[in-house]
Amino acid sequence: MTATTPRPLAELPKAHLHVHLEGAMRPSTLFELCARQGDPVPTIATSYSDFAAFQKLYVTARGAIRYEDDLVRLVGEVVQDAATDGALWIEPAIHLAGHRPLGPEIAVLELLLEAGRQASAATGVGVGWLIATDRTLSPELALEQAILATRYTGDGVVSFGLANDEAAAAPEAFAPAFARAREAGLISAPHAGEHGGPDSVRGALDALGADRVQHGVRSIEDSALVARLADEQVCLDVCPTSNVSLSVVPGFDAHPLPLLLDAGVACSINADDPLLFGVGLLDEYTVCRQQFGLDDTALAACARASVHHSGAPADLKARALGGIDDWLRS
Ligand SMILES: [Zn+2]
Question: Any idea which residues carry the catalytic annotation?
Answer without folding.
Answer: 194
